[in-house]
Specification:
Blueprint (H helix, E strand, L loop, with lengths): L4 H11 L5 E7 L5 H9 L5 E4 L3 H4 L7 H15 L11 H15 L5 E6 L1 H4 L6 H11 L7 E7 L2 H9 L11 E5 L4 H10 L6 H11 L3 H4 L8 H10 L8 H9 L3 H11 L6 E2 H8 L5 H12 L3 E4 L10 E4 L2 H10 L9 H4 L4 H16 L2 H8 L6 E8 L7 E9 L3 E8 L5 E2 L2 H15 L7 E8 L3 E2 L9 E3 L1 H4 L2
Parallel strand pairs: 1-4, 1-5, 2-3, 3-4, 11-13, 12-14, 13-15
Antiparallel strand pairs: 6-8, 7-8, 9-10, 10-11
Helix pairs in contact: 1-2, 4-5, 5-7, 8-16, 10-17, 10-19, 13-14
């Protein structure tokens, strides 16, 4: 298994705790939650069941979602060793049968139950949550050898019904594990294991399109170039990911239209919007519903929240950072006609060149930990944001990334995605100095600015290159 070392160690420690455990694993759809649990525990499951997806239920024998879910649960119980019993007519009966099965199998060793896609089991007016709460509060939590793992891509459900539950499950969750996409370094390791040969330059571009989502990366075919794989997955006649954007929201949000509307709106400005601006532009009331939706988008790694430099702490901005969504909305959705070789034919087009520059900035935002490590400040508390400023009639400025540090240093980062070493000429040197001078007006006297270049391969040293105190390359981002 690639990466996931921290999560694996945590799950193993919980398994060996010797007490009742209730664990929720959540994260973006396709990020590998089920794969993680399956690979950590392999043949240790006492009972393992996955809820039926809404799409699967369209082809089921019953029109009732509740009856379909209960029938599927009953069949899993039978396969797991449940003896004579009729199919339950309610979730109370279903969980009672599960208790009976577990008690019959109990030999004193750890009993592990894994309920995958739990939110799908909670169909409207099914009484699922009442029965589930009763199962844990009156049976599961009292058995020291019992461990329950629940999983789901519908993060709004996981957060509202489990993590932030104010009812019968308040404070009952013993552990929560949020699974994030792969880093660049983990993507490289993944491709190496799959024997897909790509340079770090191309792996970075693949990250700009597919992010660190193992499910997407696993579709790459060895022997094809990056551009050929992109065309195959997104632009060909049989492209398997062409409808993925719609599936992302319909599968994991209670109100997919609202989630999609927020994502589309966030896509219109790279610096993001406040909750109030999002409310005004989408028509969603700025209250609990919007707050829950934004929290779910953040938990799913579609969005990050941050306070831009110079703003008050109350002015939290939400910024779309999911590479797949950004790429889809920019290139795939608005294709006038199907061009199966679109990406191969447009590699050097101006639109793609501009996109690479903007997308690399996003990649850097998603690899702040690697940037801090390269700067030698992993242990320093920091905040990071982009910054743009216009002073009256003067020429405005934009800084790609600002890292404000508790040690009174501010890294003013210029981000350049180049196919070779970056060269600073006289004009660009003056631009950097001007930006530095403007930024100094807004800093405290004790602050020191370190001009930092983040680029692909490095910096050509000349009479102007000394404007940068630090240089960070792809090798650092892959660390």
């Amino acid at each position: 298994m690639i990466g996931r070392k921290k999560e694996t160690e945590e799950l193993c420690e919980i398994y060996e705790s010797g007490q009742a455990e209730f664990v929720a694993v959540y994260g973006r759809m396709r990020v590998g939650k089920t794969y993680l649990v399956d690979n950590v525990f392999k043949n240790k499951f006492t009972f393992r069941h996955a809820g039926l997806s809404p799409v699967e239920m369209e082809s089921c024998e019953f029109k009732s979602p509740l009856k379909n879910q209960l029938t599927a649960f009953y069949k899993t119980l039978k396969k797991s060793g449940l003896k004579s019993a009729e199919c339950p007519s309610s979730w109370m009966d279903a969980f009672f049968l599960l208790e009976c099965l577990l008690e019959e199998k109990d030999d004193g060793t750890r009993q592990l139950v894994f309920l995958d896609e739990l939110p799908w089991m909670d169909t409207p007016k099914s009484g699922f949550m009442t029965a589930f709460e009763y199962f844990w509060n009156n049976w599961g939590c009292h058995r020291d050898n019992f461990m329950l793992i629940v999983c789901g891509s519908a993060n709004s459900w996981i957060l509202n019904k489990l993590v932030n539950n104010h009812g019968g499950l308040y404070g009952r969750l013993t552990h929560e594990i949020r699974l994030s996409p792969f880093t660049l370094g983990e993507c490289e390791e993944f491709f190496r294991q799959k024997r897909v040969s790509l340079s770090r330059y191309d792996i970075t571009q693949s990250y700009m399109i597919f992010g660190g989502i193992p499910y997407y990366l696993g579709m790459f075919r060895k022997g094809l170039s990056l551009a050929q794989n992109v065309d195959s997955l997104l632009f060909s006649h049989a492209a398997v990911l062409r409808d993925e954007f719609k599936r992302l929201f319909s599968s994991i949000f209670d109100n997919p239209e609202r989630a999609e509307a927020v994502v589309r709106m966030l896509n219109t400005r790279s610096s993001g919007f406040t909750a109030n601006e999002i409310s005004q532009k989408t028509g969603i009331g700025n209250g609990g519903a919007l707050s829950a939706l934004l929290s779910s988008l953040v938990a799913s790694d579609f969005v990050i929240k941050y306070v831009p430099f110079g703003f008050s702490k109350r002015e939290i901005h939400y910024k779309l950072v999911d590479p797949f969504c950004l790429f889809y909305l920019r290139f795939v959705e608005n294709m006038d006609s199907l061009n199966e070789d679109f990406w191969q034919q447009n590699l050097v087009s101006q639109a793609v060149v501009v996109w690479r520059g903007l997308s690399f900035e996003n990649v850097c935002f998603l690899h702040i930990n690697q940037i801090k490590k390269a700067l030698g400040i992993s242990g320093v508390i920091t905040t990071q944001s982009a910054w743009s400023k216009r002073e009256g009639d003067e020429q405005g400025t934009q800084i790609d990334l600002l890292i404000e540090r508790r040690d009174d240093v501010v890294n003013m980062c210029e981000i350049k995605f180049y196919s070779d070493d970056f060269t600073v000429d006289k004009s660009y040197y003056r631009t950097v100095i001007r930006r530095q001078g403007l930024l100094e007006k807004y800093l405290k006297r004790k602050n020191v600015i370190h001009n930092t270049l983040i680029t692909t391969y490095g910096l050509t040293y000349n009479e102007y290159s000394g404007v940068f105190t630090n240089v960070i390359t792809l090798d650092d981002l892959f660390d």
